[in-house]
């Protein structure tokens, strides 16, 4: 299959860079003015970590970059106690990430022992601090965790991405050469990735991507849709040139690791495309089950779990050998996977059962299922591992507007939050204080305050937002 890097430039409204483009997205789309276009430009190189650095150094640099932004946001709280806790949570997470890196790459028994002790201690303290924040939220500290960072939504119906600075409210929508179904940031926050079919061929009807619901003629249409793209953007300046990589038929989701690789599920090709972001090219393909869709890396990035919609399974991929290790039967219509921070469990949305399957990652077996709302799509575990959020999209005829919150300790739904119609994508802030849900039928994002379980803000974005990711402000 052709492996091409196509140079692109993002032409936003003249003279207004990045998120300073206030309200350039949803308002422009619905007023009849199209969002800004991506046009052709000379080849532009992506700027990853230095190519000559060892993999463990790249991973450590990415972990530190991940930590610094949330720490700085956390310590800006007005209350010194809150500033301490909100700063220490990402600090501890940085220590956990470094410990996992040395466990993956190191071989000294002492460093391995220290790493194990650090992970156990820091995860326990993060949970204690999260519980303290939740308890404080009942009093004057209800506004303790400031709404910060930025969110990016993949607007499949509008061939665009919307970017919103949550602190300032500044928003921008940029057109893409694809109908993006999913979006993600690299671990260091340096690159914004989006995947989808070419805009002229993307399914822009009411069903959007479809999540493998079609059979027969619909399946043939998936195979004939043409070669989809991974589009690479600079989140610090959306007006800067971007690159795109031809990856294969009907790309659905994308995740990136700390080694500069992106993994793209190819629903039309029953495979994962592995992309070297520095070279902007596909370097490997890995066979999966039928119609691979949502995918997530384990916390130590040693394995990739992929939800195969049409054969009711999850593929377990070895990221070192780039091969499928196992295929776990999970149930009808698996769409997305979410790991707990410890990596001990993975939660899988079962769209056609209205349930979520729980996988024990050691035994690679389903240990239980949890009843949720109709048509569950994306799932996400919070940073403290206590909760799993499940967006229930419902059907096209009857879009649902609920988000189920599962208590991982009991395996039960303990709260149901009302978001917007067609609840689909889920992301969360690094401290777990806020959860963000895209509403495909209402062209909006719901911002949920985790402590109270209420929607505190609704943000208009582009047409039919699907995937969503939260990152630091730029």
Automatic annotation (TrEMBL):
Keyword Iron-sulfur among record annotations: no
Organism domain of life: Bacteria
Keywords linked to the UniProt accession: Signal
Alphabetized SUPFAM superfamilies for the sequence: Nitrous oxide reductase, N-terminal domain
Disordered: region residues: 25-48
Signal peptide range in chain numbering: 1-22
NCBIfam families xrefs: beta_rpt_yvtn
Keyword NADP among record annotations: no
Protein name: YVTN family beta-propeller protein
Domain YNCE-like beta-propeller, first and last residues per copy: 328-468
Domain (DUF305) ranges: 81-144
Pfam families the UniProt entry points to: DUF305, YNCE
């Amino acid at each position: 299959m052709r492996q091409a890097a196509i140079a692109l430039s993002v032409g936003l409204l003249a003279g207004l860079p990045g998120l300073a483009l206030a309200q350039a997205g949803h308002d422009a789309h619905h007023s009849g003015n199209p969002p800004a276009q991506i046009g052709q430009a000379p080849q532009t190189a992506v700027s990853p970590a230095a190519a000559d650095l060892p993999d463990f150094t790249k991973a450590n640099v990415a972990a530190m970059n991940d930590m610094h932004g949330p720490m700085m946001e956390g310590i800006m709280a007005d209350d010194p106690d809150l500033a301490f806790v909100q700063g220490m949570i990402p600090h501890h997470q940085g220590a956990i990430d470094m410990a996992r890196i040395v466990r993956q790459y190191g071989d000294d028994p002492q460093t391995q022992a220290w790493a194990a002790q650090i992970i156990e201690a820091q995860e326990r303290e993060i949970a204690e601090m999260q519980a303290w924040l939740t308890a404080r939220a009942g009093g004057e500290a209800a506004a303790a965790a400031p709404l910060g960072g930025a969110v990016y939504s993949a607007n499949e119906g509008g061939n665009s991405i919307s970017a919103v600075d949550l602190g300032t409210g500044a928003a921008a929508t940029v057109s893409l050469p694809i109908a993006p179904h999913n979006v993600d940031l690299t671990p260091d926050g340096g690159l914004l990735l989006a995947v989808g079919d070419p805009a002229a061929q993307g399914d822009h009807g009411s069903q959007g991507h479809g999540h493998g619901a079609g059979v027969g003629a619909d399946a043939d249409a998936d195979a004939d849709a043409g070669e989809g793209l991974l589009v690479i953007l600079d989140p610090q300046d959306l007006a800067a040139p971007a690159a795109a990589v031809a990856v294969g038929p009907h790309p659905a989701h994308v995740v990136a690791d700390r080694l500069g690789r992106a993994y793209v599920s190819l629903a039309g090709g029953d495979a994962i495309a592995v992309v070297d972001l520095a070279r902007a090219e596909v370097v490997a393909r890995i066979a999966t089950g039928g119609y691979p869709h949502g995918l997530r890396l384990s916390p130590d990035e040693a394995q990739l779990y992929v939800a195969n919609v049409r054969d009711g399974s999850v593929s377990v991929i070895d990221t070192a050998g780039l091969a499928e290790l196992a295929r776990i039967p999970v149930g009808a219509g698996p769409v997305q996977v979410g790991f707990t921070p410890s990596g001990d469990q993975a939660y899988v949305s079962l769209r056609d059962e209205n349930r979520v399957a729980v996988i024990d990652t050691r035994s690679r077996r389903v240990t239980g299922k949890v009843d949720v709302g109709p048509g569950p799509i994306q799932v996400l575990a919070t940073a403290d591992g206590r909760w799993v959020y499940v967006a229930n999209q419902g059907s096209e005829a009857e879009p649902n507007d609920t988000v189920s919150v599962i208590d991982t300790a009991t395996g039960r739904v303990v709260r149901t939050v009302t978001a917007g119609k067609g609840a689909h994508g889920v992301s969360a802030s690094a401290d777990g204080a806020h959860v963000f849900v895209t509403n495909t039928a209402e062209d909006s994002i719901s911002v949920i305050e985790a402590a109270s379980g209420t929607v505190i803000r609704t943000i208009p974005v582009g047409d039919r937002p699907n995937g969503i990711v939260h990152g630091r402000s730029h």
